[in-house]
Design goal:
The complex is a heterodimer of chains A (460) and B (433). With 460 residues, chain A is of the alpha+beta class. Chain A is 36% helix and 20% strand. Chain A contains 15 helices and 18 strands. Chain A has helices spanning 4-14, 23-27, 50-62, 115-123, 141-147, 154-157, 192-196, 230-242, 255-265, 285-301, 313-331, 349-362, 389-408, 427-430, 433-446, and strands spanning 19-20, 43-45, 67-70, 87-90, 97-101, 106-109, 127-128, 164-170, 176-180, 205-212, 214-215, 219-227, 249-254, 275-283, 306-309, 336-339, 366-372, 377-384. The longest helix of chain A has 20 residues, at 389-408. Chain B is of the alpha/beta class. Helices cover 53% and strands 10% of the residues of chain B. Chain B contains 22 helices and twelve strands. Chain B has helices at 4-18, 32-37, 44-55, 63-70, 77-81, 88-103, 107-117, 120-137, 169-172, 193-197, 200-212, 228-232, 236-250, 263-276, 282-294, 298-306, 328-334, 338-345, 367-371, 373-389, 400-413, 422-430; strands at 138-142, 147-150, 161-162, 176-177, 186-190, 216-219, 257-260, 295-297, 320-324, 350-352, 394-397, 418-421. Chain B has a five-stranded mixed β-sheet with strand order 4-6-5-7-8, with helices on both faces. Chain B has a four-stranded parallel β-sheet with strand order 10-9-11-12, sandwiched between helices. In chain B, a hairpin with a 4-residue loop joins strand 1 and strand 2. The longest helix of chain B is centred in the first third of the chain and has 18 residues, at 120-137. The chains are: A alpha+beta (460), B alpha/beta (433). Chains A and B meet through helix 2 and helix 11 of A and helix 3 and helix 4 of B. The complex binds flavin-adenine dinucleotide and iron/sulfur cluster (SF4) (3 copies). Residues 21-27, 44-45, 48, 78, 82-84, 86, 88 of chain B line the site of one iron/sulfur cluster. Chain B: It catalyses: glycolate + A = glyoxylate + AH2; (R)-lactate + A = pyruvate + AH2.
Chain lengths: 460, 433
């Protein structure tokens, strides 16, 4: 519980209307996009300036109040569930793009800026910010940095980490810490950004983010390669890269997902195909033509039944519409959707896909698989109804099996959705006891009272 | 407060629909209320979570949830954008009814719905008096938009509202029954309250158009409100009464389509009458369903059934720049967006220009505007900005309720932009044909 005196202090700093105490309001900050039990915070705070944000962090620390920062609450690993109650601090009023520098190619933003709005503002100036998580229409840049979010373009352009040039964040005492710079090269001091990106709100609270921008590629070409055999499709992924072509996007969809998407959006997908690869190459128009032709011939050699190359922007949009509809289409089949995030080295995708099919059979569950095959990041999506307890047990067992397999293949627990609460218990399996102890020592040094997003990543 | 267990049981009715929400948060990107407040309880995900909380008996008092549930325009933007296909509006409307039945209707709403709206004749008479005496209480502020504001401190605040018409539509045309002409078609025309009482000129334009195209028209003597104000406040009693009243009016008369010029009426009759009507006999329900099947927006009727086409881009002198606002109830609820634009483009005196975010809600939302005027006008101001940025001198739309809101916003800002219904624009061109 938080004392009345502290609540008064919050109200004095923020004004009453930005301090939510009512149980109904607090209830709406007890969950995020992960399928986990909600936990009620004691108070929800909505600062509108950096100064307010810093003061809130300090007060929480002084009074040992657990503090969970929340952007849009779209993370899929329980990162914003206030596991120990306490305060949820919203960043969505800290949503200004402070600068877009078209000469030096960087931008400075507040953490609550919505990703898609930022990407559009940058694009309006002829520049490009590639990280494009599926949630970009609502997710915040602060949340993206804290989760090190990726997207469809991860293969060629990398993930959020690759665009963070600098950070300003509040440490647990409410002191501002700066790392990185506006220069492309900067080796001043410890590389704190490397530690903070992906820290899921457990080490500090971002206040400003300096992001790298790049020129917008001038040409793009998309195609759809259709396979009658899942393994052939997944082997093609590695083959393309082995030929030294790095598409901007290389996505996979299994037969179940294809049929579901087609049922739902009628974009003309081949429902009899065992699997699809959706591929886009970008860059200089001449290079794009060359790469597209090469990709096409590799797909043919690898045994694609058919290849449809988008002839214009409208057809290209259709290809991506199909991919973007995947989650929606699957989500409509059953009440509960568990979107997992198994990631393996590219060459192991065929094995992983085979394993997923086997797991689906073994646990008698409906699993649709799609994802960023190009970077080994698959999204096996389990369709279920959480209320069916017996089935839910099987879902949990299947999730365990999926991670075991991914780790067994030299993969990782999370390609992009973070660890949060959902996967912290698997962490030791991927790393080691020593890694967890080391991480806990860092946490203890930076947050001795353990108030910053407690219980996440490294457990308690 | 009564037993929360009982309320939870009542809410079981929506449980199957509630669990469909996967809490992805994607509704945040389109909810106009959330865009203003940034509060999770203002977006669909938050409201659905609250209903789930009620269902799990997590709250001591349902009025907190009821309050948050009422902070919603029922614009349907969230549902149209939801990856999971959550039937957000159905859930909200049903839940409002369940909770309202449980805690009781507020005394003011009781008077408005039960004593006025559900008795159409009395409602008409009251508003006719209102129209006669409105000059005492209000003064005109904008000749172009026909708006007024309060003379004295009033519950209407600083609204610029469209005045009640000196003569309502149902006085001009108490009833009508003309045979099908050249088109071979006959329609029933559902006027709707706002057209009847504030914008009878829309009704007149609709009738002129139908006549021009040789369409027979039936308007019964006995029609009332479509019932959405009562339903959205959870008063299913009044809603059901109004459906029955209207059913009697349209009766078993023969007509090909039921046409309206009010987006809200169209979507209410088409979508809510058949699904939300309770306590109807199976026979009545069948008739309601048949009526819903036949219901159409007037521009949809003109384009799809009469064959109205956009005018070829011939030069006929000076053209007036016009833009169009998509009413949520037409575009998001019924998917009708092309037809009204076609109808507008059929008038060669205008040049059509899209505004930014044409399908973003204007913020009216019926009783939302009365209850949360500040929020409603904050949303409306974005619409106003987009209209003004388009540089057009006329903005057309297909819902008289949107017209009220847009007129208020433009009038308060002192903009010289006319607000018209798409059918008025089309009817203007008929003079020249
Ligand atoms: C439909 C859907 C599609 C998705 N697609 C993708 C995808 O393609 N790729 C991908 O990587 N993820 C994806 N995600 C997951 C999610 O959107 C990302 O993790 C995203 O980065 C979360 O952003 P957010 O603003 O919602 O952050 P939140 O969920 O609010 O927070 C995430 C974490 O960041 C912390 N945090 C937030 N702001 C700050 C701050 N200012 N300082 C410190 N910590 C902070 C929080 O405490 C929390 O631990 C998807 C989710 C959904 C629902
Ligand atoms: S978009 Fe749909 S599924 Fe997602 S949170 Fe909103 S209502 Fe729920
Ligand atoms: S109906 Fe409109 S106002 Fe209500 S929650 Fe959905 S988008 Fe928001
Ligand atoms: S929708 Fe509005 S205008 Fe139309 S009849 Fe109902 S209340 Fe009246």
């Amino acid at each position: 519980m938080i004392s009345q005196a502290v609540i008064k202090e919050f109200e004095r700093i923020l004004g009453k209307e930005k301090v939510f105490l009512d149980e109904t309001d607090r209830h709406t900050y007890s969950y995020d996009a992960a399928v986990l039990e909600p936990v009620l915070p004691s108070v929800v705070l909505r600062p509108t300036s950096s100064e307010e944000l810093g003061r809130l962090v300090r007060i929480c620390n002084e009074n040992s109040i657990p503090l969970t920062v929340r952007g849009a609450g779209t993370n899929l690993s329980g990162g914003t569930i206030p596991k120990k109650g306490g305060a949820v601090v919203l960043t969505n009023a800290l949503n200004k793009i402070l600068e877009i520098n078209t000469e030096d190619l960087y931008a400075i933003v507040q953490p609550g800026v919505v990703t898609a709005k930022f990407a559009a503002a940058v694009e309006a100036k002829g520049l490009f910010y590639p990280p494009d998580p599926g949630s970009q229409a609502v997710s915040t840049l602060g949340g993206n940095v804290a989760e090190n979010a990726g997207g469809l373009r991860g293969l060629k352009y990398g993930v959020t980490r690759d665009y963070v040039m600098g950070l300003e964040f509040f440490d647990v005492n409410g002191e501002i810490v700066k790392t990185g710079s506006r220069t492309v090269k900067c080796v001043t001091g410890y590389n704190l950004a490397a530690l903070m990106v992906g820290s899921e709100g457990t080490l500090g609270v971002f206040d400003k983010i300096i992001l790298k921008l790049i020129p917008m590629p001038t040409g793009r070409k998309a195609m759809m390669a259709i396979f009658d055999n899942v393994i052939k499709a997944s082997e093609t992924v590695a083959a393309i890269i082995a030929h030294r072509i790095v598409p901007a996007t290389l996505e996979f969809m299994d037969n179940f997902t294809i049929r579901t998407v087609e049922d739902y959006s009628r974009v003309g997908l081949p429902t009899d195909a065992a699997a699809l690869l959706l591929i886009e190459v970008d860059g200089h128009p001449a290079q794009v033509e060359e790469d597209a032709a090469k990709v096409e011939s590799i797909c043919r050699e690898m045994g694609a039944m058919k290849i449809r190359v988008a002839q214009d922007a409208a057809e290209r949009d259709k290809v991506w519409e199909a991919r973007r509809a995947a989650l929606s289409a699957l989500a409509k089949l059953k009440p509960t959707v568990v979107l997992e995030d198994a990631t393996v080295p590219r060459s192991k995708i065929p094995a992983m896909i085979q394993a997923l099919e086997e797991i689906s059979r073994r646990f008698n569950l409906t699993i649709g698989t799609f994802g960023h095959a190009g970077d080994g990041n698959l999204h096996p999506t389990i369709l279920t109804d959480k209320r069916n307890k017996e089935e839910w047990h099987r879902v949990e067992a299947a999730i365990d099996a999926i991670f075991d397999k991914a780790l067994g293949l030299g993969g990782t627990l999370s390609g992009e959705h973070g660890i949060g609460m959902a996967k912290s218990r698997y962490l030791e399996k991927e790393t080691s006891k020593g890694t967890i102890l080391f991480s806990r020592r860092i946490k203890a040094a930076l947050d001795p009272k353990g108030i910053l997003n407690p219980g996440k990543i490294i457990g308690e | 407060m009564q037993d929360m267990k009982k309320l939870a049981q009542l809410l079981k009715e929506v449980e199957d629909q509630l669990v469909v929400c996967m809490r992805c948060g994607m509704c945040q990107s389109v909810c106009p209320v959330f865009a203003e407040t940034g509060r999770e309880s203002d977006v669909a995900r938050g409201k659905l979570a609250l209903l789930d909380g009620l269902l799990q008996e997590m709250f001591k008092d349902p009025t907190g949830v009821q309050d948050r549930l009422s902070r919603c325009l029922l614009c349907g933007s969230c549902a149209a954008n939801c990856p999971s296909g959550v039937k957000v509006l159905d859930i909200f409307i049903k839940a409002r009814a369940i909770i309202t039945n449980y805690v009781g209707l507020s005394p003011l709403k009781k008077i408005i719905f039960r004593k006025m709206l559900s008795q159409p004749e009395l409602f008409d008479r009251l508003l006719e008096w209102g129209s006669k005496f409105q000059g005492i209480f209000v003064k005109p502020v904008d000749d172009l938009l026909g708006t007024s504001c309060a003379r004295f401190v009033s519950p209407l605040g600083d609204r610029h509202f469209s005045s009640l018409a000196p003569e309502p539509f149902h006085r001009m045309v108490p009833s009508l029954d003309t045979p099908a002409g050249a088109s071979g078609l006959k329609v029933a025309f559902f006027t709707g309250c706002v057209i009847d009482k504030v914008f009878p000129r829309i009704g007149t334009a609709a009738l002129r158009t139908l006549k021009h195209h040789g369409v027979g028209v039936f308007i019964p003597k006995e029609v009332g409100c479509c019932g959405i104000p009562a339903l959205s406040s959870g008063d299913t009693d009044t809603f059901n009464k109004l459906i029955l009243h209207n059913l009697k009016g349209f009766g078993s008369r023969n007509f090909d389509y039921l046409v309206t010029a009010c987006a809200t009426c169209t979507s209410t009759i088409k979508k809510l009458w058949p699904t939300m009507a309770e306590e109807l006999t199976p026979g009545e329900l069948d008739r309601v369903k048949a009526l819903a099947e036949k219901t159409m927006d007037i521009s949809q009727f003109l384009v799809e059934k009469v064959g109205v086409k956009p005018e070829a881009a011939g030069e006929t002198g000076e053209k007036t720049l016009i833009t169009y606002h998509d009413p949520c109830h037409l575009k998001k609820s019924l998917g009708i967006a092309v037809q009204p634009r076609t109808v507008i483009q059929a008038n060669p005196s205008y040049r059509f220009k899209e505004m930014k975010e044409a399908d973003k809600c204007c913020g009216c939302g019926g009783s939302f505007n009365l209850q949360y005027y500040d929020l409603s006008s904050a949303i409306g101001k974005h619409k106003r900005d987009n209209i003004v940025d388009s540089g057009c001198s006329v903005v057309a739309t297909s819902c008289p309720a949107c017209m009220l809101q847009i007129s208020d916003m433009l009038s308060q800002a002192g903009d010289r932009v006319e607000v018209k219904h798409a059918i008025e624009i089309y009817a203007e061109s008929l003079d020249k044909k």
